[in-house]
Write a structure and sequence with these properties.
With 557 residues, the protein is of the alpha+beta class. It has four domains: 10-175, Beta-Lactamase, CATH 3.30.450; 198-251; 300-363, no CATH class; 378-556, Histidine kinase-like ATPase, C-terminal domain (Heat Shock Protein 90, 2-Layer Sandwich). It is 60% helix and 15% strand. It has helices at residues 10-65, 69-80, 135-184, 205-299, 302-315, 320-326, 328-376, 387-397, 399-405, 423-441, 450-453, 503-513; strands at 87-92, 97-101, 107-115, 125-134, 382-386, 408-413, 418-422, 457-465, 468-475, 517-521, 529-536, 546-549, 553-556. The strands form four sheets. A five-stranded mixed sheet has the order 6-8-9-11-10, with helices on one face. Strands 2-1-4-3 form a four-stranded antiparallel sheet. Strands 5-7 form a two-stranded antiparallel ribbon. Helix 3 packs across helix 4 (205-299) and helix 4 (205-299) packs across helix 12.
């Protein structure tokens, strides 16, 4: 942006200031002169009129005594011929008046009594002489002289201002212009300065500025050479740094890719571990029943006793009727056989129940495995998904653990919500959230009181809002302390003895890759927690990098 030019040159502004100051002084002096001269002129006229009074009294007295009207008019015309007399009047005692000129209110007025011309001591008043001088005429006369003086002074001021401007331009403005041109040539380059103007040799302040600029130019040239050298070094550093950044970026991208793969695999592994844990729980119950059945068969004496009774009957086959009716042992043998058969029938029913339970457990294991295999088929495939059905599939995987822990599941789902996304990632996220809720609800502290054992509730809600779906998992479990909150989504962070810290991290990562987010809320320890999964109804491809944030999962960047 070009600098704005001043409206006037320095010489013009300085001369204008001198002119204004001089004009103010002239106006002040002229006004003072006007007042003084007006006062002096007024005093002069007054003195002159008093002189007329003394010189005309006798002449007017003689003419008025004989009432020589022609002589009186001649006297009045003589008075009127004076430039300072504007009105004159002679009157006698009978109020006979002879006047000349026009009477005005703003005037210097003198009234002279006229006495009879006799030499006696007692003089008789025979009339009066009135003389007036118009002050307006007096002021006009004074003002004319003052204006003439003011015009002369004004011309003098203009002449002085012109001379001042010329001298100022010659002594200041022109050297400053040369100095400005000299300063403009100072720049970061290898060029030398033009020769210093002749005005710089006078030794005044402008010359000092010239020499200061020359020194500054020398310093700038030295700094310029230093900058050039530094720029060359920076170019070398820049090339090396760009190469290093490219190498580090490539390594970082590869590391990021490996981390994403590792996190995803870790999340899959954690879900698989949960599935295997459920299968293990089922197998544990089955093994316990099989072991009990084996021990019962090994320790069962019914068959041994039954074999002994049959052997005894075989021995008494020829005299069986007598033995059963008259022998004391024979009489009890039938009761013994009947009790043994009853015991065998009971054992048979228990065996059938055990086999039924074993078949149910095997069916549960088969169902869990089938569900896991069915989920694994959809990895990376974007399709239309019934979100509520996905939640039910995950619930079926954890049904055995939920029943074993006696956890109440509450569901609040809106009407059928269809999302277009990756089924496998959604199942992984929902599975991790449900698994964490189950584990939080079954922590050891809940075993302390009966009331807390009955308070195991996991609430699941699903709703659609502004083109997104919000899935919430709320538990009444251990909660999240303030110290734990910054690390909830951090890779490798876990509060479980057998945990790996992969589940929530990979879930947050998958949520961001699906275009959504994973967040949580908790009022603290022993207050439970709630996790919110927010996803768009239609998945958009995400290709950006990511970084971890403490409270909202994985942030893309």
């Amino acid at each position: 942006m070009k600098p704005r030019r001043p409206l006037r040159s320095l010489a013009t502004r300085a001369s204008l200031q001198v002119f204004i100051l001089s004009l103010f002084c002239v106006i002040f002096v002229t006004t003072w002169q006007l007042i003084v001269e007006y006062r002096d002129e007024k005093d002069r006229v007054t003195d002159q009129m008093n002189g007329l009074k003394d010189s005309l009294t006798d002449v007017v007295a003689r003419s008025l005594w004989i009432y020589d009207e022609d002589q009186l008019r001649t006297i009045l015309h003589g008075l009127k011929s004076l430039d300072y007399v504007s009105h004159a009047q002679i009157e006698d005692n009978d109020l006979m008046r002879i006047r000349i000129g026009r009477e005005v209110p703003d005037a210097i007025k003198i009234s002279v009594p006229i006495y009879a011309p006799n030499k006696s001591q007692n003089k008789d008043l025979i009339g009066r002489l009135h003389i007036e001088s118009n002050l307006s005429s007096l002021r006009e006369k004074v003002l004319t002289r003052i204006l003439s003086t003011f015009a002369s002074n004004f011309v003098l001021i203009m002449l002085i201002s012109a001379i001042t401007i010329f001298i100022f331009q010659l002594q200041v403005t022109r050297p400053l212009n040369h100095l400005s041109q000299f300063a403009k040539k100072i720049q970061l380059s290898n060029s030398s300065l033009p020769p210093i103007h002749a005005s710089a040799s006078k030794g005044d302040e402008i010359a000092q500025v010239y020499h200061a600029l020359a020194v500054m130019h020398g310093n700038i040239q030295a700094d310029y050479q230093t900058i050039l050298k530094a720029e060359e070094e920076l170019k070398l550093y820049k090339n090396d740094l760009e190469t290093l950044v490219e190498e580090r970026t490539e390594k970082l991208n590869q590391t990021t890719k490996n981390l994403i793969d590792s996190s995803r695999k870790a999340g899959m592994a954690e879900v698989a571990i949960g599935v295997l844990h459920n299968i293990g729980n089922v197998l544990t119950g089955a093994n316990v029943r099989v072991e009990k059945l084996k021990n019962r068969i090994d320790e069962d004496e019914v068959l041994i006793n039954l074999r002994s009774g049959l052997n005894l009957l075989e021995e008494k086959r020829g005299n069986l009727d007598h033995y059963l009716k008259h022998d004391r042992r024979g009489e009890k043998l039938l009761d013994f056989l009947e009790a043994s058969v009853e015991k065998l029938l009971n054992d048979h029913e228990e065996l059938k129940e055990t086999i039924r339970l074993q078949r149910l457990d095997l069916g549960t294991i088969s169902s869990i495995i089938n569900k896991q295999q069915e989920q694994a088929k959809f990895t990376g495939l974007v399709e239309n998904i019934d979100f509520a059905a996905c939640i039910d599939d995950v619930l079926s995987l954890y049904a055995h653990e939920i029943n074993r822990q006696q956890i109440l599941i509450e569901k609040d789902f809106e009407a059928e919500i269809i999302v277009t996304s990756d089924r496998h990632k959604i199942l992984q996220i929902v599975g991790n959230l449900l698994s964490n809720a189950i584990q939080a609800s079954s922590w050891a502290g809940w075993e302390q009181t009966r009331e807390k054992r009955n308070a195991r509730v996991i609430s699941l809600s699903l709703k659609e809002e502004l083109g997104t779906i919000i899935f919430a998992v709320r538990d009444t479990g251990i909660g999240i302390s303030e110290e734990q909150k910054p690390y909830i989504f951090r890779y490798g962070y876990t509060t479980k003895k057998d945990g790996h810290g992969f589940g929530l991290h990979s879930s947050a990562l998958d949520a961001r890759l699906l275009g959504g987010s994973l967040q949580y809320a908790s009022e603290g320890f022993e207050t439970g927690s709630i996790f919110y999964l927010t996803l768009p109804l239609f998945k958009a491809p995400i290709t950006k990098g990511f970084k971890s944030t403490p409270n909202a999962g994985i942030e893309l960047s």
